[in-house]
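Q: For a teaching session next week I want to show students how multiple molecules come together into a single three-dimensional assembly. I've collected the sequence lines for a complex. Could you give me the predicted structure tokens for the whole thing so I can convert them for display?
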Amino acid sequence: MGQLSILSVSQGDIKISFDNKDAAETIRAKRIITDAMRRGYALLVEVDGVYQRALDFDESKGEYVIADWDPQTVQPDLRLKDAETETQETTAQPGPKKGKRGRKRIPIESTNAVGIARSAGG
Amino acid sequence: MAMMADQANEWCGLPTPIDGQRLIVEPSHPASAVYAAMVAPEVDDGRKVVNIWYSRKYKSDICMVRKPTGELTWGIIPGAHHAGKAIATMGCSVAWSIEAEAKAMEMLAGLIPGHLFKMYFMTGMFLQTSARSGVTYVFRRLRPTIAMRPDGEGDMKILCTLCLHPIGYFQDTWAGSLCPTDDVIAHLLLMKGDEHLYWKRANQIPPHRPEAGL
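A: Of course. Below is the structure for the complete assembly, covering every listed component.
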């Protein structure tokens, strides 16, 4: 069962579980998410163990909308210089493709997410 | 404050104000105007600020001011005193509950490996390197996050410190409205989930400034 944790004041994090059996609670939860997005909250959705920010939320379907692209990683410089032959061998591998910049939808019942409010500064 | 939030049907909660401490709440919070009204309005004496810049010599801001008569004068805005700021931060602990901090610690334990959680539990800090940018972050309780990367000579160079407090923070302290570990979680997840947004939303404090907490 999916869960949304919203970092909050006073008593600590608010945890909202999405239980399809309780329709009223699910409707309330979806309205909270829509309100949070409107207020500029960052919703970080856990996808395959990695957190991604939700770009939008479809209240009618109860789905987070996230970007659909391959993650990029830092590639070390692996070029080697052969002193005897004074040739350079390149063993650097090309980086992963960026992938299609589409959108992916994740049902709220199937994933965990964390909501973080806008910053007041510091 | 929790009961007041429930009565107002405010799901995002109401930050706890502290007497004698100015609470800054982010503008989109429904009660931000209420908290802003708690502070006495500034008196306009006709002086206008012409320029402000930081002095490394004085570790303070230098401010040029034009008086209503047209005369230019200057003054020093005292820089943050580390010990004073730390003591003021301790005083803000009345705004947090042990239960909230315990919940946050439990959540953080599920977000990072065991040895890093132990590091944080013992020292109040832990390290994480972003696979995306190669920047290493030192996440600290009640201090801005340190961002650094290798300088190419076998050492690490501090780029800046990142200060960010969701919902609200207490002016002239390192304390936010959220309990300390919730602030750390916010930094960690924003770095992991949207590093670009993290840098965009945080205040980037140069390492030489006392506010950086170094």
